[in-house]
Amino acid sequence: GNPARIWRPIFVCSPDIEYKTGSVEELAGSCVYQVVIQTKYACPWTTPAPTQDTGGGAIIGWIIEIGVIAEVISIALPIVCCLVYIIGAIMCYRKNLKYSKAHKNRNQYYSINHVDTDTVTNTQAV
Fold first, then answer.
1. Which helix or strand (DSSP H or E) is residue 7 part of?
2. Using one digit for the tens of pLDDT, what is the confidence trace for 10-53?
3. What are the φ and ψ backbone dihedral angles of 95, each rounded to 5 degrees?
């Protein structure tokens, strides 16, 4: 909206308090909202407590995903190789069959229409 709303949390160091929030207040018609949050995590000498999701799950997820991908590849790769081999063999057979038919037809053509000049005798009248 216009004017833009602004959120201003104010963190206060309270070493004995996990967290405690005050009420959200708007600063006199300015669309600026602020709240005081007391927490031990605002203290500079404390480290945040680990949360439920520490990021370790992402690593385990990737390991599982890589394992699944490897298993799919180990199953699919031999199948794909066999299919490529079979298709290649069929294509090669068809090419050889086509070549042998053309060769056979050529031999038949020459045997019918070719006249061997060495065996032909001159039969003209003298």
1. strand 6-13
2. 999 988 888 898 888 888 878 888 999 998 888 887 555 555 55
3. -65, -45
